[in-house]
Description:
Distance between the termini: 15 Å
Largest sheet: none
Mean pLDDT: 84
Radius of gyration: 20 Å
Shape: elongated
Helix content: over 70%
Strand content: under 5%
Number of helices: 8
Amino acid sequence: MLASFTMAFGQLNDSRFLKPLLYSLGLSVLLALIAFPLGYLGFEWLNQAFLAWLEGGDSWWMSTIEWGLRVLGILIILVIFVFAFGTIQTAFLGLFLDDVVTAARDKNHPTVQLDAPPPLSKSSWASAQFLTLSLSVNALILPIVLIGWFLPPLGLIVQLIANGYLFGKEYEDIIAVRFQTESRLDPLKRTIFGTAAAALYLVPVLNFVAPVISAAAFTNYIASRNE
């Protein structure tokens, strides 16, 4: 597994990695720019509804609570996007993954045969399913992660294991099917691999290329089992 990631890092300068990286990153940023204002408006609506329920009028403490809730809402939205950005980018990467898989195979496992990539409609559906599942799971574990900030490393462990399982399953679903002798991993190995990938998403700057690195590493790992 370590060798698979090492080979993936060594291939970052491959031009065939650039298109999937830029497309998935660009679409993720675009989605974030659209979703952030909507999220803020949602929190603002909840803020006003809560203040109306308090019925505090124009009291000074109402203004304090209002601004406190507003700042808290912005912080929560930012935390959600930090945690979810890698998931969103991975989902978009599934639409442009063919070049990454082919490039990794050509350089490190040239004798391994690949099947044709799935049609765009199937890839889009798989990406939508992964995005929905991942965002739902991360929303469920968010309270534990937030509490874990005060009880380290609880939050980090929960986040890595949950996303490790999700990433491992997603990469297997979109990459393993490309191999003529489809090689599936047992759930433990798949989760360990996904956890290693999830750890890359937590490293600043590196998190932007983590989806491509992880996809190439998973390709190397599966290909090595088919040689």
